[in-house]
Amino acid sequence: MKLDNIYQEEKKSNFAKVSEIIITMASRPSGFIGLSILVFHVILAFISPYIAPYDFKAINPTLMLQAPSAEYWFGTDDLGRDVFTRTILGGRTALTITFFGSLIALLWGGLLGIFCGLVGGKTDDIVMRIVDAFLSIPWILAMLLIVSLLGTSTEVLIPALGFFYGKGIVRVARAATHDVIAKDFIVSARARGHSNFSIIWNEIIPNVRDAILVEGAMRWSWMLLGFSSLSFLGFGVSPPTPDWGLMISNARGLMSFAYWSVIAPIVGLSSLIIGINLTADAFAKALGIDRSTKAPV
Amino acid sequence: MSDIIQKVKNLSIGFKSKKGEEILILKNISTNIKKGETVGIVGESGSGKSTLALAMMGYVKHGLYTIGGECEFNSSNLLNMKSKDLEKIRGRKIAMIPQNAGQALTPNLKIGYQIDEALQLHSDLNEKEREKKISELLNKVRLPSPETIALRYPHELSGGQQQRVAVAMALAGTPDLLLLDEPTTGLDVTTQAHVLELLNFIAKDTGTSMVYVSHDLGAIAQVSDRIIVMYSGEIVLEGPSRDILKRPIHPYTHGLLKSIPKLSLAGLPESMPGSQPQPGIIQGGCSFFDRCNFSEEKCKNKSPHLEFLKELNTSVRCFNYEKLLKESQINQNVNKIKNNSKDKEILNLSDVSISYAKQKLLDQIFNRISDDNPTVKDININIKKGETIALVGESGSGKSTILKSIAGLLRTKDGLIRFEESRNLSSELKERDPNDLRIIQLIFQNPDESLNPNHTVEEIIAQPLKLYFGLKGEELKKNIIDLLQKVRLGEFYISRYPRQLSGGEKQRVAVARAFAAKPDIILCDEVTSALDVSVQAAVLNLLQQLKEDFGTTYIFVSHDLAVVRAISDRVAVLYQGRLCEVGPSNDVYKFPSHPYTEVLLGAVLEPDPDIKPKLVAEDIVEEKPPEKGCSFQGRCSRIVGDICKKEIPPWQLTDSGNAIRCHIPIKELQKEQI
Predict the structure, then answer these.
(1) Alpha-carbon distance B500 to nearest alpha carbon in chain A (angstroms)
(2) In chain A, which residues have their Cβ closer than 8 Å to the Cβ of B278?
(3) Quick one: which of A130, B35, B284, B592 is 20 to 30 A from B501 by CA?
């Protein structure tokens, strides 16, 4: 019950709204943990080049597979590179690529979903069947094909990931639009003769924005996992650039005697994914969209 | 006393606001329910009536908590009982009938199974006895052929039948107390009357006490022995039903009864100013102070106590009840509406039919609609400039469908919609030019849904102004403030969101938005049915005022015949998408000549214990209009013979200009009325 809503409140600035949402998110333990992890990773991504103790690509055969010590906190890998340096730098590419990838996914998935939900009829049928067809293709196969044809540059990875992770958002945005579309204020706007663009922009987006943002945040964590899988398979970041997926892949054969070289990137990757997940959940709860009662499509 | 079965003592229920303040929903309520008595609890939404009813079965809604007081049932306090003990009482001793039976019944279980479940829980009967009991219960609530009903699923029953099943389920545990939360609110007029009659019968037959919660004084008047009037979480008046309805001695009840439109009185009743305060706002003083015509200085600071008047057997919470005591009867003043209609025709519907049928592929390809028996058929109405024409009928009569087609939202199958004698309006929204769209504006039933929750009042009213007139900046703002003033809202509303407004204020914003387009015709779709009774009259008065100022034409759709009587110049009665009767409202209401009009008017509930509804026809619900003959043949009590089933009845004109579609000659139709 939202009894507090009945009380008069003044119109708030966007900044006040955002900060209120963040405070509500942080007031829940899970939200606080999630936000802290996420903020930690983002800050680390910004400052890591300046605080890294060693050069990430400096190979030193004399220091191969050293156990963690005061000098090399997380030990060294099979080429004698410092694991700590590589771990704190290893999230940068993944975070950047998947962040922009998620934005693209949100934009095209959200807009297409809203459009399909609004116009309905045959257009909706055809577009949704195409989306379904794409959903049935294992994304990793398609990604591998794209990457091997076009290379692994950022300009290829961002749109490709954005495309594959946007498909699911189409469905969510379309369902959220269907909830709104039956309301009389849309009927009223139609009867007044507003254009489809105006109805989408003024009437629908403010009402479905929250649901789509939450979905986008969830997709971000999935995309991160997906991107790391690509790196793991050797199709993401190319060496010697440090990347968690790549590091795990390189060190996995040495796990039995040099556990440190694989544990650090694993902790880095999973903590970031958990952080994003918890944040997205807290975000949904702060907005009043409870994911526990609604199954994601 | 042993004949008291439920005793509410100093009950206060509330919640904690975000700021940590304790806000009361119920303030110190004390009342008793006697054995075999039916008590009506009336109040507007937010008055705490449902909270009180739920507390009577030991339930406090999530987010609320008991601050003090007790609800005693058989001398044990329900509010601090363990849930295990409560289980034994709920259903067996106290049963509840919910507002929306359609949602309260499990959709995938058969009716018989669901009643059986209730019996297993609340009685000790074995399987055979239970089977017998199910038929008995269904018989008791007067459902036709109980054996077949028991095998049906809830969606196969009509709303009225579902409500009857809910009654049967509540009776399964042979409870001592029955709580009814707005049990007839979602039902059609005729069904409502039948269900109330059934409840009356059950109360007498079983001797069960009933607590009947409703906002509708008309329904309360039909069932209750005693009435409790609630306002802002307090009991303001409590006493015998007849006294309260005939001689209310609290200003709120007095004003309320004055503001309810009646069938016998044409014209708009006086409206009550303002609306009920939000909980927590009133700190000291009388909660009704702002809206009261009798208020004095002391009411502002001092809150009156509930005073028991022995000679009247009534409790009242007012300092000045004596003033009202002197008034022997309610004098309802009505503002007679002026008939502004000019001779000029503004909208003409000729042979309009509308179909909802799913179209075959071939028809889809050729973009045509083929349906032999469309939902709405043969609508011919000629609407004059400046008049208010009302479309009335039960749900499914096609009244809203016709509105949608006029607005261009729904394609017509056949027929023409003509504006101002010369211009044909296309039936496709896309083919209408902006001016065609501007001249027709809509006001919807529920302002919660018709206003975008993420827009401020300014943005809402700005939309038509920007779209049709391209206004910007200062001029736009000036126009918005002008419009707000026209609907009696202050300038400061401009930055509010819909959720910060009360129901009446929201509807005013919706009215302002409609008038912003400077339309010639406004389509009002049940505009008052989502509003509280005390606010309804104010909105109707506002609509009438605006109409007189702007010369707008209203097409008014409503199921509430008393409201229609108050505001309309002409009435069109619809049944199953076919017109039955069209005529000046005075005539339609004075001599209900078409058998269906007679049924509808007979079923209207008035807040007067002396006026009982007349139950002329059965409350069957027809799914589809009949293929041949008169649309009302299925329920008509005056069927002449085969002709009704085979031939569409002809239009007959009375002397006063009333057109009736019936096979019975006019003279005979009118004769039987007298």
Answers:
(1) 6
(2) 6-7
(3) B284
